[in-house]
Structure formats: structure tokens, C-alpha cells
Amino acid sequence: MNLPRFYCREALSPGAHVELPEPVARHAVRVLRLPPGAPMVLFDGRGGEYPAHIERIEKNRVFAELADWRDVERESPLAVTLVQALQAGDKMDFTIQKAVELGVRDIVPVESRRSVLKLAGERAGKRVAHWQGVAASACEQCGRNQVPLVAPLERLDHWLAKPAAGILRLMLAPDAENTLSDIAPATNVQLLIGAEGGLDPQEVLAARQSGFQAVRLGPRVLRTETAGLAALSVLQALWGDFRGE
């Protein structure tokens, strides 16, 4: 039986007595109905994890005692940054959640010309913070102890103008000549995925000029919420930890 896992943003230490963050405490007691003494695993996103147990419950407050730190990691040897154009509705939540489960290292949300969703200012900051929470929750579920960073939102053209050395840059295009199996293996990859309707021609040109290679997954056109996840799965199967080695 897998123990409940909870992310605590504050740094943890062996033998510490900590109060669980309010959302974690609420989920542990109200949803999972964990009693005093219940075992769990806590992690702070800095690597490794701590076996722990509920020390006491005081109304809506939950206190836990930590055991020794364990050097446990479930990270892929393949470092993939998903550069995802904004998606409408709850598609971004879904994409980020599943990308974390598939081992993505970082996520860069960008606003492209065909993005239906438009965010700016405080609203953009709140949404990025929400997505960071989605990433942390996905780590709780899938066993990862290092939480991928969701970068601040920026325009795609601004992000493409930044230099990138020693990184394989790939973007999906249904009419591309090469498939992922035609590309030489790499350990550090940036994967660019367009919004609904894909990238517009000027964005494709700008991406090519900044070093992105176009690749296709097959004969079918994939939706934006499918494309990145399918590509991540193929990359992990080719070069990552889906190979079973």
C-alpha cells in the first residue's frame, strides 16, 4: 500500500516537528481522514523525502513528526523543458499535470498569436502560481520529489529571442520530414507546442531561426493538449526512463 505523499514548500529536516500547510492538512484530515499516528511521506521539492507520521490534530491544524531523510529520486535522465502555448479552458491544468507525471523537468507557458487564452499582469501571476500548485500535486501523486518549475508567462517571440546553447530544440509539425526517431539522441531538450490552431507561419519561422527543428509524430494532426504529452512519451521511450534499462 502506497503511503500518502504531501508537498511542503518550507524546508524540512530530519526529526523535525512541523505543522502541515493548511491545504495539506485539510486534505489529510477531511479527504483522506487520516488519524493521529497515521504514516505519510513528506517532501519539500529539494530532493529526497521524509517518512513521517501525524503527531497530533488540533481542529483544522495538523502536526507531523519527521524521520530521517531518504535519498529517493524518480527523475528521468532526460531533461525536457515543455514550452507550451497557452491553451483555453482547463487544458493547461491537464497538460501540466500529465507532463509532470511523464517526467518533464520544467514548463514554460508562452502566449502565442493563436492562443485563445490571454493573460496579463496580476491575473497572469495568479494563474502561474496555480499551475505551480498543479505541478506540486502531480508530484505528490506520481512519486517525484523534485517539483518542476513553471516559469513566469511571457510572449513566445520574447522567449525565442533568448539564447540557448547545448540544447536540442524541437517543435511538432504535421508536415515535417523527420520523426523523433530520426533525431540524434540528446539529454537536454526543449519541446515547443503551439496552442489551438498551432503556431502561425511567422512563429514557425522565428522558431526555426532560433534553432528549433520540426518533427512529426505520425500522419494525424493532434490537439494541443495531446501533442505535447504524446511527444514527451515518445522522448522518454527513445532516450529517457521508459526504456526499462
UniProtKB/TrEMBL annotation:
Locations listed in the record: Cytoplasm
CDD domains membership: RsmE-like (cd18084)
SUPFAM superfamilies in UniProt: alpha/beta knot, PUA domain-like
Residue ranges occupied by any Ribosomal RNA small subunit methyltransferase E PUA-like domain in the UniProt entry: 21-66
Record's catalysed reaction(s): uridine(1498) in 16S rRNA + S-adenosyl-L-methionine = N(3)-methyluridine(1498) in 16S rRNA + S-adenosyl-L-homocysteine + H(+)
GO biological process: rRNA base methylation
Pfam families: Methyltrans_RNA, PUA_4
Enzyme Commission code: 2.1.1.193
An MF annotation (GO) of this entry: rRNA (uridine-N3-)-methyltransferase activity
Entry keyword set: Cytoplasm, Methyltransferase, rRNA processing, S-adenosyl-L-methionine, Transferase
Entry GO terms, CC: cytoplasm
Enzyme class label: transferase
Location of the Ribosomal RNA small subunit methyltransferase E methyltransferase domain: 75-236
Family (UniProt): Belongs to the RNA methyltransferase RsmE family.
Function: Specifically methylates the N3 position of the uracil ring of uridine 1498 (m3U1498) in 16S rRNA. Acts on the fully assembled 30S ribosomal subunit.
The protein's name in its UniProt record: Ribosomal RNA small subunit methyltransferase E
